[in-house]
Protein backbone atom coordinates (compact mmCIF):
# COMPACT_ATOMS: atom_id res chain seq x y z
CA UNK A 1 0.00 0.00 0.00
CA UNK A 2 1.40 3.34 -1.06
CA UNK A 3 1.70 6.19 1.44
CA UNK A 4 1.71 9.97 0.87
CA UNK A 5 5.48 10.05 0.35
CA UNK A 6 5.36 7.64 -2.59
CA UNK A 7 5.13 8.93 -6.17
CA UNK A 8 2.28 7.72 -8.30
CA UNK A 9 2.99 7.15 -11.97
CA UNK A 10 -0.38 8.40 -13.19
CA UNK A 11 -3.80 9.72 -12.16
CA UNK A 12 -5.24 6.22 -11.95
CA UNK A 13 -2.83 5.25 -9.14
CA UNK A 14 -3.69 8.45 -7.23
CA UNK A 15 -7.37 7.53 -7.50
CA UNK A 16 -6.79 3.91 -6.51
CA UNK A 17 -4.59 4.54 -3.49
CA UNK A 18 -5.70 7.95 -2.20
CA UNK A 19 -9.22 8.44 -3.47
CA UNK A 20 -11.11 11.01 -5.61
CA UNK A 21 -10.45 13.96 -3.29
CA UNK A 22 -6.70 13.51 -3.60
CA UNK A 23 -6.97 13.25 -7.39
CA UNK A 24 -9.03 16.46 -7.47
CA UNK A 25 -6.35 18.29 -5.46
CA UNK A 26 -3.59 17.03 -7.76
CA UNK A 27 -5.45 18.26 -10.85
CA UNK A 28 -6.31 21.66 -9.37
CA UNK A 29 -2.74 22.29 -8.15
CA UNK A 30 -0.94 20.87 -11.17
CA UNK A 31 1.61 23.10 -12.91
CA UNK A 32 0.93 23.72 -16.58
CA UNK A 33 3.31 22.02 -18.98
CA UNK A 34 5.64 24.73 -20.31
CA UNK A 35 5.27 25.68 -23.98
CA UNK A 36 8.48 26.82 -25.60
CA UNK A 37 8.28 30.48 -26.55
CA UNK A 38 5.13 31.22 -24.49
CA UNK A 39 5.63 33.19 -21.27
CA UNK A 40 3.85 35.21 -18.61
CA UNK A 41 5.03 38.59 -17.34
CA UNK A 42 5.76 36.86 -14.02
CA UNK A 43 8.61 35.06 -15.78
CA UNK A 44 10.24 38.47 -16.18
CA UNK A 45 9.41 40.10 -12.85
CA UNK A 46 13.06 39.95 -11.72
CA UNK A 47 14.10 41.84 -14.87
CA UNK A 48 11.28 44.36 -14.43
CA UNK A 49 12.34 44.96 -10.82
CA UNK A 50 15.96 45.48 -11.89
CA UNK A 51 14.78 47.86 -14.63
CA UNK A 52 12.77 49.86 -12.09
CA UNK A 53 15.74 50.11 -9.73
CA UNK A 54 18.16 50.85 -12.59
CA UNK A 55 20.74 48.30 -11.56
CA UNK A 56 22.36 48.43 -14.99
CA UNK A 57 22.45 50.76 -17.98
CA UNK A 58 18.68 50.98 -18.44
CA UNK A 59 18.81 54.79 -18.73
CA UNK A 60 21.72 54.60 -21.12
CA UNK A 61 25.18 56.13 -20.76
CA UNK A 62 26.24 59.60 -21.82
CA UNK A 63 28.00 60.12 -25.13
CA UNK A 64 30.28 62.52 -23.26
CA UNK A 65 28.81 65.70 -24.77
CA UNK A 66 26.50 67.89 -22.73
CA UNK A 67 24.69 69.02 -25.88
CA UNK A 68 23.56 65.45 -26.58
CA UNK A 69 22.64 64.31 -23.06
CA UNK A 70 18.93 65.03 -23.49
CA UNK A 71 18.77 63.87 -27.11
CA UNK A 72 20.68 60.61 -27.26
CA UNK A 73 22.10 58.22 -24.71
CA UNK A 74 23.62 54.81 -25.42
CA UNK A 75 21.78 51.78 -24.04
CA UNK A 76 22.88 48.15 -24.43
CA UNK A 77 20.70 46.05 -26.72
CA UNK A 78 19.85 48.80 -29.18
CA UNK A 79 20.68 49.51 -32.82
CA UNK A 80 21.71 52.98 -33.95
CA UNK A 81 21.86 53.74 -37.67
CA UNK A 82 24.21 56.60 -38.58
CA UNK A 83 24.29 58.33 -41.94
CA UNK A 84 25.56 61.48 -43.60
CA UNK A 85 27.05 62.61 -46.87
CA UNK A 86 30.67 61.54 -47.55
CA UNK A 87 33.37 63.29 -45.52
CA UNK A 88 30.94 64.51 -42.87
CA UNK A 89 32.79 62.87 -39.99
CA UNK A 90 30.49 59.91 -39.27
CA UNK A 91 33.28 57.46 -38.42
CA UNK A 92 35.33 60.10 -36.58
CA UNK A 93 32.31 60.99 -34.44
CA UNK A 94 31.67 57.33 -33.54
CA UNK A 95 35.35 56.94 -32.61
CA UNK A 96 35.19 60.02 -30.37
CA UNK A 97 32.00 58.75 -28.70
CA UNK A 98 33.58 55.35 -27.97
CA UNK A 99 36.59 57.08 -26.40
CA UNK A 100 34.25 59.14 -24.21
CA UNK A 101 32.22 56.11 -23.12
CA UNK A 102 35.34 54.10 -22.37
CA UNK A 103 36.76 56.93 -20.27
CA UNK A 104 33.52 57.31 -18.30
CA UNK A 105 32.17 53.75 -18.14
CA UNK A 106 35.06 51.45 -19.07
CA UNK A 107 33.17 49.86 -21.98
CA UNK A 108 35.04 47.74 -24.51
CA UNK A 109 34.21 47.63 -28.21
CA UNK A 110 34.59 45.44 -31.27
CA UNK A 111 35.16 47.23 -34.58
CA UNK A 112 34.28 46.05 -38.06
CA UNK A 113 35.54 49.13 -39.87
CA UNK A 114 36.22 48.09 -43.43
CA UNK A 115 37.18 51.47 -44.88
CA UNK A 116 39.96 52.08 -42.36
CA UNK A 117 43.47 50.68 -42.46
CA UNK A 118 44.40 49.39 -38.99
CA UNK A 119 47.26 51.84 -38.50
CA UNK A 120 45.11 54.79 -39.62
CA UNK A 121 42.25 53.79 -37.35
CA UNK A 122 44.71 53.39 -34.47
CA UNK A 123 46.03 56.91 -35.14
CA UNK A 124 42.54 58.42 -35.03
CA UNK A 125 41.64 56.67 -31.78
CA UNK A 126 44.96 57.49 -30.11
CA UNK A 127 44.70 61.18 -31.04
CA UNK A 128 41.26 61.40 -29.44
CA UNK A 129 42.38 59.50 -26.33
CA UNK A 130 45.69 61.28 -25.76
CA UNK A 131 44.38 64.61 -27.13
CA UNK A 132 47.53 65.21 -29.15
CA UNK A 133 48.30 64.72 -32.85
CA UNK A 134 49.97 61.46 -33.89
CA UNK A 135 52.31 63.19 -36.36
CA UNK A 136 54.13 66.47 -36.49
CA UNK A 137 52.43 67.42 -39.73
CA UNK A 138 50.52 70.27 -41.30
CA UNK A 139 47.17 69.24 -39.81
CA UNK A 140 48.66 69.45 -36.28
CA UNK A 141 49.48 73.14 -36.72
CA UNK A 142 51.23 74.25 -33.51
CA UNK A 143 49.94 71.46 -31.23
CA UNK A 144 52.70 69.31 -29.72
CA UNK A 145 52.94 65.77 -31.07
CA UNK A 146 52.35 62.85 -28.67
CA UNK A 147 55.56 61.49 -27.14
CA UNK A 148 56.83 57.93 -27.53
CA UNK A 149 55.92 57.26 -23.89
CA UNK A 150 52.37 58.49 -24.53
CA UNK A 151 52.26 56.32 -27.65
CA UNK A 152 53.26 53.21 -25.68
CA UNK A 153 50.66 53.93 -23.00
CA UNK A 154 48.10 54.56 -25.75
CA UNK A 155 48.89 51.26 -27.46
CA UNK A 156 48.18 49.43 -24.21
CA UNK A 157 44.85 51.27 -23.94
CA UNK A 158 44.01 50.38 -27.56
CA UNK A 159 44.70 46.71 -26.95
CA UNK A 160 42.59 46.60 -23.79
CA UNK A 161 39.65 48.58 -25.17
CA UNK A 162 39.13 47.53 -28.79
CA UNK A 163 38.93 44.27 -30.72
CA UNK A 164 39.01 44.13 -34.50
CA UNK A 165 36.99 42.17 -37.03
CA UNK A 166 39.05 42.03 -40.22
CA UNK A 167 38.44 40.09 -43.41
CA UNK A 168 41.97 39.31 -44.59
CA UNK A 169 41.09 37.64 -47.91
CA UNK A 170 39.72 39.20 -51.09
CA UNK A 171 36.08 38.33 -50.43
CA UNK A 172 33.65 40.69 -48.74
CA UNK A 173 32.44 39.71 -45.25
CA UNK A 174 28.84 38.65 -44.76
CA UNK A 175 26.71 39.99 -41.93
CA UNK A 176 26.47 36.47 -40.44
CA UNK A 177 30.28 36.20 -40.36
CA UNK A 178 30.56 39.60 -38.66
CA UNK A 179 27.93 38.78 -36.03
CA UNK A 180 29.51 35.40 -35.23
CA UNK A 181 32.85 37.08 -34.50
CA UNK A 182 31.13 39.86 -32.57
CA UNK A 183 29.37 37.22 -30.44
CA UNK A 184 32.76 35.66 -29.67
CA UNK A 185 34.10 39.10 -28.66
CA UNK A 186 31.14 39.66 -26.33
CA UNK A 187 31.49 36.27 -24.64
CA UNK A 188 35.28 36.18 -24.46
CA UNK A 189 36.19 39.84 -23.89
CA UNK A 190 33.00 41.39 -22.47
CA UNK A 191 32.58 44.05 -25.16
CA UNK A 192 29.52 46.30 -24.87
CA UNK A 193 29.50 47.93 -28.31
CA UNK A 194 29.83 46.84 -31.96
CA UNK A 195 30.57 49.16 -34.89
CA UNK A 196 29.82 48.04 -38.46
CA UNK A 197 31.15 50.67 -40.85
CA UNK A 198 29.83 50.83 -43.55
CA UNK A 199 26.90 48.82 -44.92
CA UNK A 200 28.04 48.90 -48.54
CA UNK A 201 31.32 47.10 -47.70
CA UNK A 202 29.45 43.92 -46.68
CA UNK A 203 28.73 40.99 -48.97
CA UNK A 204 25.16 41.51 -50.19
CA UNK A 205 24.51 38.39 -52.24
CA UNK A 206 20.86 37.52 -51.93
CA UNK A 207 18.52 34.92 -53.45
CA UNK A 208 17.15 35.93 -56.88
CA UNK A 209 13.59 35.87 -55.56
CA UNK A 210 14.38 38.26 -52.66
CA UNK A 211 14.00 42.01 -53.12
CA UNK A 212 16.53 44.48 -51.71
CA UNK A 213 13.90 45.76 -49.29
CA UNK A 214 13.29 42.23 -47.95
CA UNK A 215 17.04 41.64 -47.75
CA UNK A 216 17.73 44.83 -45.76
CA UNK A 217 14.86 44.00 -43.41
CA UNK A 218 16.36 40.55 -42.80
CA UNK A 219 19.84 41.96 -42.10
CA UNK A 220 18.55 44.56 -39.64
CA UNK A 221 16.44 41.96 -37.85
CA UNK A 222 19.55 39.79 -37.35
CA UNK A 223 21.54 42.73 -36.02
CA UNK A 224 18.77 43.75 -33.63
CA UNK A 225 18.46 40.21 -32.29
CA UNK A 226 22.21 40.08 -31.76
CA UNK A 227 22.11 43.40 -29.88
CA UNK A 228 19.21 42.31 -27.66
CA UNK A 229 20.45 38.78 -26.94
CA UNK A 230 23.95 39.93 -26.02
CA UNK A 231 23.09 43.29 -24.41
CA UNK A 232 25.42 44.99 -26.88
CA UNK A 233 24.85 48.35 -28.56
CA UNK A 234 25.37 48.30 -32.33
CA UNK A 235 26.28 51.34 -34.44
CA UNK A 236 25.68 50.65 -38.14
CA UNK A 237 26.92 53.22 -40.68
CA UNK A 238 24.95 53.44 -43.93
CA UNK A 239 25.67 55.96 -46.70
CA UNK A 240 22.88 57.93 -48.38
CA UNK A 241 22.13 57.30 -52.04
CA UNK A 242 23.53 59.75 -54.56
CA UNK A 243 21.98 63.10 -53.78
CA UNK A 244 21.56 64.60 -57.24
CA UNK A 245 19.70 67.64 -55.99
CA UNK A 246 21.60 68.05 -52.73
CA UNK A 247 21.32 71.60 -51.40
CA UNK A 248 24.14 71.34 -48.87
CA UNK A 249 22.00 70.55 -45.83
CA UNK A 250 21.94 67.31 -43.83
CA UNK A 251 20.29 64.40 -45.68
CA UNK A 252 17.19 62.59 -44.45
CA UNK A 253 17.28 59.09 -42.96
CA UNK A 254 15.05 57.98 -45.85
CA UNK A 255 17.86 58.98 -48.22
CA UNK A 256 19.92 55.95 -47.15
CA UNK A 257 20.73 53.77 -50.12
CA UNK A 258 18.91 50.45 -50.09
CA UNK A 259 15.67 50.67 -48.17
CA UNK A 260 13.45 52.75 -45.89
CA UNK A 261 13.84 49.89 -43.38
CA UNK A 262 17.04 51.56 -42.17
CA UNK A 263 14.95 54.20 -40.43
CA UNK A 264 11.89 52.01 -39.84
CA UNK A 265 13.64 49.17 -37.99
CA UNK A 266 16.40 50.93 -36.05
CA UNK A 267 16.06 52.03 -32.44
CA UNK A 268 17.92 55.30 -33.05
CA UNK A 269 18.66 57.21 -36.23
CA UNK A 270 21.37 59.90 -36.42
CA UNK A 271 22.62 62.12 -39.23
CA UNK A 272 26.13 63.58 -38.88
CA UNK A 273 26.61 66.70 -40.98
CA UNK A 274 29.56 69.07 -41.39
CA UNK A 275 29.27 72.67 -42.50
CA UNK A 276 31.07 73.30 -45.80
CA UNK A 277 30.03 76.89 -46.44
CA UNK A 278 31.94 79.61 -44.49
CA UNK A 279 28.98 81.93 -45.06
CA UNK A 280 26.81 79.66 -42.90
CA UNK A 281 29.19 79.46 -39.94
CA UNK A 282 32.55 78.09 -38.81
CA UNK A 283 33.89 75.21 -40.89
CA UNK A 284 34.72 73.24 -37.72
CA UNK A 285 31.01 73.07 -36.82
CA UNK A 286 29.45 69.57 -36.87
CA UNK A 287 25.69 69.09 -36.70
CA UNK A 288 24.37 65.98 -34.95
CA UNK A 289 20.77 65.41 -36.03
CA UNK A 290 18.89 62.89 -33.90
CA UNK A 291 16.11 61.86 -36.28
CA UNK A 292 14.66 58.88 -34.42
CA UNK A 293 14.59 57.63 -30.83
CA UNK A 294 12.31 54.67 -30.22
CA UNK A 295 12.72 54.64 -26.43
CA UNK A 296 11.74 57.96 -24.82
CA UNK A 297 13.79 57.02 -21.73
CA UNK A 298 16.96 57.27 -23.83
CA UNK A 299 16.36 60.58 -25.61
CA UNK A 300 14.28 62.50 -28.13
CA UNK A 301 14.41 64.00 -31.61
CA UNK A 302 16.48 67.15 -31.94
CA UNK A 303 19.75 68.67 -33.09
CA UNK A 304 23.00 69.56 -31.38
CA UNK A 305 26.24 71.17 -32.54
CA UNK A 306 29.81 70.21 -31.74
CA UNK A 307 33.12 71.69 -32.80
CA UNK A 308 35.77 69.50 -34.43
CA UNK A 309 39.43 69.93 -33.51
CA UNK A 310 41.34 68.89 -36.63
CA UNK A 311 44.67 68.58 -34.83
CA UNK A 312 43.49 66.00 -32.28
CA UNK A 313 40.30 64.64 -33.85
CA UNK A 314 38.29 65.63 -30.76
CA UNK A 315 34.66 66.75 -30.83
CA UNK A 316 33.87 69.38 -28.22
CA UNK A 317 30.76 70.99 -26.80
CA UNK A 318 29.86 74.49 -27.95
CA UNK A 319 28.71 76.75 -25.14
CA UNK A 320 26.12 78.61 -27.22
CA UNK A 321 24.19 76.01 -29.22
CA UNK A 322 22.24 78.73 -31.01
CA UNK A 323 25.32 80.55 -32.28
CA UNK A 324 25.61 78.37 -35.38
Automatic annotation (TrEMBL):
A single BP term in Gene Ontology: DNA replication
Domain of life: Eukaryota
Signal peptide segment: none
Molecular function in Gene Ontology: 5'-3' DNA helicase activity; ATP binding; single-stranded DNA binding
InterPro entries: DNA_helicase_DnaB-like_C, P-loop_NTPase, Twinkle-like
SUPFAM superfamilies in the record: P-loop containing nucleoside triphosphate hydrolases
SF4 helicase domain segment(s): 54-322
Record protein name field: SF4 helicase domain-containing protein
Species: Acorus gramineus
